[in-house]
């Protein structure tokens, strides 16, 4: 029975380490300027304003998911982690798409069509 307890402790320690890594690498901090000005996004007009609001909302959902997965990894077996990480990867793809849309819409609004081509060619979210 003692070996079972030690194995559980070892797995919990690994889960805690993985949990910390998930928090450190997957959480995305919303820039303070964006948080302070969320209520002014309507001034950006269509389509940039709604896209920015959607981006901030999805970012909040993403960070809540990161917290949830981080907590659950501690108690789950290693075989269950891939499902959570796939879910997280889906959120990152959504965030990447929304970020690209927001960049294009904002640059188009303030810079004209030349900026649109630049925004489409660069990914705003680095890939690991």
Concise overview:
With 128 residues, the protein is mainly α. 77% of the residues lie in helices and 0% in strands. It has helices spanning 2-26, 32-37, 48-75, 81-111, 113-121.
Description:
- 77% of the residues lie in helices and 0% in strands.
- With 128 residues, it is mainly α.
- The protein has helices spanning 2-26, 32-37, 48-75, 81-111, 113-121.
- The chain has one domain.
- The chain is elongated.
Give start-end ranges of low-pLDDT stretches.
114-128
Average pLDDT rating: 79
Fraction in beta strands? under 5%
- Give me the count of strands: 0
- What share of the residues lie within helices? over 70%
Walk me through the topology.
Layout: H1 2-26, H2 32-37, H3 48-75, H4 81-111, H5 113-121
Helix pairs in contact: 1-3, 3-4, 4-5
Throw out a few tags for this protein.
128 residues; mainly alpha
């Amino acid at each position: 029975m003692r070996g079972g307890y030690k194995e559980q402790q070892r797995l919990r320690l690994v889960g805690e380490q993985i949990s910390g890594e998930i928090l450190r690498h997957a959480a995305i901090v919303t820039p303070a300027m964006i948080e302070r000005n969320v209520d002014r996004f309507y001034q950006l007009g269509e389509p940039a304003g709604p896209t920015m609001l959607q981006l901030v909302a999805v970012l909040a959902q993403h960070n809540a998911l990161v917290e949830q997965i981080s907590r659950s990894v501690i108690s789950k077996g290693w075989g269950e982690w891939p499902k959570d990480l796939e879910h997280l990867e889906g959120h990152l793809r959504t965030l990447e798409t929304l970020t690209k849309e927001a960049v294009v819409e904002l640059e188009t609004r303030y810079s004209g069509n030349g900026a649109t081509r630049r925004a489409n060619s660069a990914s705003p979210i680095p890939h690991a």
